[in-house]
Every structure is written in C-alpha cells, then in structure tokens.
C-alpha cells in the first residue's frame, strides 16, 4: 500500500490551495481527481461563467454610452464567444494538473473510494495517509418531477453551442439569476420559475430590486411563488406545468435548484465518518470529521459559510497551516463577501440595513450612508445611473457592512473589505494612499 502524509479526494479549490503549500513545505501530498483538475470553479463554474458574461458587460457599458460617446452598437456572437470559452477553459484541467505536479504534489486521475477509515482505493490500488481530506465538492441537484429527463444543468448551459430561442431556468438563486442574465443578454426569451417571493435570498433587498428590474428590462419573465410539477415534450417544445398554470412551450430548461453533496459517492459507509441529514460532511472547528485523521474542506462540508471559491480556498489554506504545525487554533473565518455577476453586479459583505432606511439610523441603531453614482465621475461618464453603494456603521462608527450595485460592484466591495475586516478608524484609513484616478480612490474617500 502506498503511504502519503496527506491525501486529498478531489482537486477543486478546496484541495489545491492547501495541497501546494503543504508540498512546498516538504509534506508528501497525493491529490486524486475523478474528473477535471481545478473542480467546478475552474472548469464549469466561476471561470466559464465570467468568460461568457464579460463581453455582455462590455456591450452593456457601451450601449449606455450610445449617442454620447459611441456611435455603433456592439453585437456578441454566441458561437464565437463559446469557441473562446472552450479554448480558455479547455486548457484549465491540464494547467491545474501541471501546477500541482510542478509544485511537488503527486496526482492521480481516478475515482477514489474509502474502503475503511485509513484506506482509499483508486484503480484497484490502496493508498493511505496520516491525514485524508475529503474535498469532493458538489454536483447539480436534480428535481424529481415527472419529465426530469428533459432537464439540463449549469454544466450543460456553460457548454451550449447555440443559445436556445426560448429558455427557462428553475430556481431563484445565484446560478439561475446569473445564467438568466447571460442568456437574456444573448437574446434568448427567458423565463424564471422561482419558488420564493423574490430572487437572491440573503442579498440586500433594495439592490435585488435593481438587479431584478435590469433582468426584466431584458425581457426576462419571472414567475414567483411557482414550482414546477411536470414537463411534457410536445411538437412545439417542452411544456412545464407548475402549481399555478401550464406554461408556453420552450426549447431548453435549466434546473438551477441548488447543489447536492458528492459525499454519498465516496464509500463513506465503509468508514465511521458522519454526514448531516442533507449529506454534508460534518466537521468541527478544525475541519476535522468525527474520525480524527479524516478532514473535510469546501462545498462538501456542513460549514455555515457560503459555498463559494474564496471560502473553499481559505479552508484549504487553513489546513495547510495546521498540517505543517504553523497553527493549532480553530478556523476563524474573516468577513466573507458575496457577489452576483449580473449586469449590473450586486456585491455585499457584513451587516445589511434593516427596514427601508437608506440614509440615517436603522432599527438596529446602525448608521446607514448611501453613496449614489453621482459621487463618482467614472460612473457619470458611463451613464451608470442605477449604481449605488450603501455603507453600514456600528454605534462606535466602524464600517460593519457594505452593499454595492453597479458595473464594478465586486471591486468596490473588495476595496471596502479591509476597513471592516481590520476595524479601521478614520486615522487608520488615512494611512492609505490609493492610486488616482481609480475606483478604489473614489470609493475610499467616501467611507
Ligand atoms: C455555475 C456556477 C458558478 C459559480 N460561480 C462562482 C463565482 O463566480 N464565484 C465563486 O466564488 N463561486 C462560484 N461558484 C461556486 C464554486 O464553484 C464552488 O464554491 C467551488 O468550486 C467549491 O470548490 P470545492 O473544491 O469545494 O468543490 P468542487 O469544485 O466541486 O471540486 C470537487 C472535486 O472533487 C472531485 N471528486 C468528487 N468525488 C470524487 C472522487 N470520489 N474521487 C476523486 N475526485 C472526486 C470532483 O470531480 C471535483 O473536481 C459557482 C458554482 C457554479 C455551479
Ligand atoms: N457569484 C457566485 O459567487 C456564485 C455563482 C453561482 C453559484 N454560486 C454558488 O453555487 C451554489 C449553488 O447555487 P444555486 O443557485 O444552484 O443554489 P442556491 O441554493 O443559491 O439556489 C437554489 C434555488 O433553487 C430553489 N429551489 C430549491 N429547491 C427547489 C425545488 N424543489 N423546487 C423549486 N425551486 C427550488 C431555491 O428556492 C433557490 O432559489 C451556491 O451555494 C452559490 O454560493 C456562487
């Protein structure tokens, strides 16, 4: 049996961010990946999505400036865009694999299964390690309704050679909303079937309204408080029946109703590892399962954090520090920001205003300050009138939350994070000299 110091199951963000520093510090590290090195984010998530979105953002910005600065409207050819995406993303698997190897990590492509608490099997060979890390991530959740064989998933959407004329997305979370934005920008007639009364639960409602209005302006029809019950194939296309009505036929349906843990496919029944009732691997504050030598990181865990790449990467790096004896303390998560890559983007972190107040003191005694786009001449030149930033301060005057909507909301929120994470007062903030003219300078001078 081959023995390593650390064995990772999965080669997504939750693995390689820790595996590389561990190997660089002299540990013998094995990473087993059954599909593509880099996992969902590199191959069929964040990166593919942002590549398909970016030209539409650029087009949108120039469209807003038509008649003011630009004279000809841009068009995006989906087939060309997909060819670029395939070329760039197609290279990720090999790049990620080579990066691991270059940094001294041993890699195997194959499906790993536990055969007991100490042993993982792949291609009929047994491997053991002092520490085994489950970093096996998730797959798309599939609705169990009649006709679910007609459903597609985000993986399929991100590979679409042609944009369907009529497309329906089921779900109102990040995947559904971002893919609705891309497909509507690409010219599809888009319908969203949303179980809740609004999109993007957990995001700042005022800016969810802005994003929703932008989708509707592109012709997206949003059916709230609606759940699908069956799908029929007819001569005119796929017909979804919901709790309320029978919908018009469409060409393509994306099930974006969340993600399912891959923990059920790891042979955990041969171990003592416990998962919660939804299949997420239970970990303690050291990311350790109930079996002391088995750990878990990223989306596959029951962590109370958003399932996003920066969290998976943070956890993986944390284990790197623990396994090399640099720290022995529980994981402490920093403030975790979130972003929705629609046009405009919506990004936020920390505490949000309570109620409808947008300037003044809210019900929790927090001071709310709103920065409209008129404060920022980058936005004025782009005619970006709907954009806005909302800042939330505690009673001592520290920044504890921020939300932004606009073409560069993600960068604005990134720029504000250090003030809150490091609890900076005015004197500390004034220690920075930001380059000018830049977005960071414009945002920071208003904090
Ligand atoms: C469409 C989409 C868009 C997204 N966009 C963003 C975004 O913009 N920003 C963001 O921060 N997050 C985004 N996310 C979320 C992000 O992709 C995940 O949070 C991140 O990929 C989690 O990393 P992970 O390593 O925990 O899991 P994964 O990326 O799922 O990696 C797990 C790996 O384990 C492998 N594996 C599973 N079982 C086995 C086995 N038995 N043997 C060997 N290998 C196995 C899988 O093949 C996979 O490669 C997006 C997700 C989706 C679906
Ligand atoms: N920009 C980003 O950071 C980004 C982008 C995409 C995805 N992600 C991550 O990927 C993960 C998956 O995203 P997602 O949008 O698939 O999941 P989600 O949990 O955010 O949203 C799922 C949606 O499906 C609905 N739903 C669930 N079950 C349903 C059912 N049976 N019938 C009808 N509707 C149902 C929910 O009400 C919700 O609106 C998230 O954790 C997210 O953090 C992040």
Automatic annotation (TrEMBL):
Gene3D superfamilies (alphabetical): 3.30.390.30, FAD/NAD(P)-binding domain
Cofactor: how and how many bound: Binds 1 FAD per subunit.
This protein's UniProt keywords: FAD, Flavoprotein, NAD, Nucleotide-binding
Residues the record lists as binding NAD(+): 171-178, 258
An MF annotation (GO) of this entry: oxidoreductase activity
Required co-factors: FAD
Cystine connections: 41-46
Residues covered by the Pyridine nucleotide-disulphide oxidoreductase dimerisation domain: 336-440
FAD/NAD(P)-binding domain segment(s): 4-313
Annotated residues for binding of FAD: 49, 299
Similarity annotation: Belongs to the class-I pyridine nucleotide-disulfide oxidoreductase family.
Protein name: NAD(P)/FAD-dependent oxidoreductase
């Amino acid at each position: 049996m081959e023995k390593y110091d650390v064995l990772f199951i999965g080669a997504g963000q939750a693995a390689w961010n820790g595996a590389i520093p561990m190997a660089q510090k002299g540990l013998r590290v094995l990473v087993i990946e059954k599909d593509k090195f880099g996992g969902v984010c590199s191959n069929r998530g964040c990166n593919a999505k942002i590549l398909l979105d970016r030209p539409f953002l650029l087009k949108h910005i120039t469209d807003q400036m038509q008649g003011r600065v630009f004279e000809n409207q841009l068009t995006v050819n989906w087939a060309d865009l997909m060819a670029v995406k395939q070329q760039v993303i197609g290279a990720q698997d090999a790049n990620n694999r080579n990066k691991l190897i270059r940094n001294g990590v041993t890699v195997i492509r194959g499906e790993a299964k536990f055969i007991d608490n100490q042993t993982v099997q792949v291609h009929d060979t047994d491997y053991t390690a002092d520490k085994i890390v489950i970093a096996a991530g998730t797959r798309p959740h599939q609705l169990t309704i009649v006709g679910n064989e007609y459903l597609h998933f985000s993986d399929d959407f991100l590979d679409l050679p042609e944009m369907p004329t009529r497309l329906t997305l089921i779900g109102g979370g990040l995947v559904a909303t971002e893919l609705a934005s891309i497909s509507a920008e690409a010219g599809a007639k888009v319908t969203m079937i949303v179980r809740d009364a609004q999109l993007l639960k957990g995001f700042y409602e005022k800016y969810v309204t802005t994003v929703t209005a932008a989708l509707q302006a592109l012709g997206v029809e949003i059916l709230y408080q609606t759940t699908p019950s069956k799908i029929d194939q007819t001569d005119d296309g796929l017909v979804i029946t919901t709790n309320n009505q029978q919908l018009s036929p469409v060409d393509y349906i994306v099930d974006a109703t969340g993600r399912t843990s891959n923990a059920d496919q790891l042979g955990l029944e041969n171990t003592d590892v416990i998962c919660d009732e939804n299949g997420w691997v239970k970990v303690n504050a050291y990311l350790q399962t109930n079996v002391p030598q088995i750990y878990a990181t990223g989306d596959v865990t029951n962590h109370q954090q958003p399932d996003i790449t920066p969290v998976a990467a943070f956890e993986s790096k944390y284990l790197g520090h623990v396994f090399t004896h640099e720290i022995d303390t529980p994981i402490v998560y920093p403030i975790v920001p979130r972003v929705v890559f629609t046009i405009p983007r919506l990004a936020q972190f920390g505490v949000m205003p309570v109620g409808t107040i947008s300037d003044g003191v809210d019900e929790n005694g927090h001071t709310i300050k709103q920065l409209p786009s008129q404060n920022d001449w980058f936005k004025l030149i782009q005619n970006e009138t709907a954009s806005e930033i909302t800042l939330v301060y505690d009673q001592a005057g520290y920044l504890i939350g921020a939300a932004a909507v606009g073409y560069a909301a993600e960068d604005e929120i990134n720029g504000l994070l250090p003030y809150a994470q490091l609890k900076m007062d005015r004197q500390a903030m004034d220690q920075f000299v930001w380059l000018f003219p830049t977005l960071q300078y414009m945002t920071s001078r208003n904090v």
